[in-house]
Amino acid sequence: MSGPNLQTGNILGVYVNAITMADALQAVDSWICSRNPHYICVTPAHSVMECYDHQPLREIFNHSGLTTPDGMAIVWLLRAKGFRFVERVYGPDLMRAVCRQGIEKGYRHFFYGGAPGVGEKLAGMLPKQFPGLQVVGVESPPFRKLTAEEVEAEQARIRDERPDIIWVGIGSPRQEIWMSENIDRLKVPVLVGVGAAFDFLSGNKRQAPGWVQRNGLEWFYRLVSEPRRLWRRYLLGYPRFVVLVVLQALGLLRFE
Asked: What is the pTM of this model?
């Protein structure tokens, strides 16, 4: 990647960048200045599990410009690997920080994703928090595979708006696949998959309090908030994640 020289830690075969928020902001700015396209995968434990189960997805994450530690479990594992300085680079926080940095630098933002109306709501709210923010477009794609004609028309609309950053909120792993397929076609410097950040920052869903996030309990907060949708991810996926991480630490599970 261009930008800062960043180290990575191997977590179940996913190479997660051991970074701070300042590192992420520096990388974003360097890509916009060079017009050299990259995508960013914000990576909690459930994304690592998706990658563990699907090698093609793991390759998408491992070819990103940045794969950030989005969850506290990932931060703690990186610190255990010796990266003492690493910080959580969480999707909603990254979006806020880039919006703040981009006012003076003139970044042009495009929002891709969210349920109908959510992207528009986000595009209306963020400029109130960050006066001078440039939002050049919003797209809420249908939750189905697009036809070839729809894809071509969508790409043309995005290119016409000339964004510097596309915020992609269509859920993982769909958003990472979309970014990897479109990074070379759109010629946009930065694509960032931020998942639920659209809902949180638009006020569509409540975000966990800061103390809950800092103590690694956001998963429990979200499980209580949306049990029918998230129970399988957290009650089945996370215990399996712990077991696999222990096996990797003991050298019983290895990755090239």
From this structure: 0.92
For 174, what's the count of Cα atoms within 13 Å in the CB-facing half-sphere? Answer: 15
112 in Cβ contact with 168 (< 8 Å)? yes
CA distance 21 to 184: 26
Q: SS3 for 254?
A: coil
pLDDT tens per residue across span 110-125 = 999 988 899 999 999 9
Helices (H), 106-226: 118-129, 148-161, 174-186, 197-202, 210-214, 218-225
Q: Same domain, yes or no, for 183 and 214? A: no
- The domain total for the chain is 2
Is residue 168 within 8 A of residue 178, CB to CB? The reply is: yes
CA 194 – CA 214 distance, rounded (Å): 19
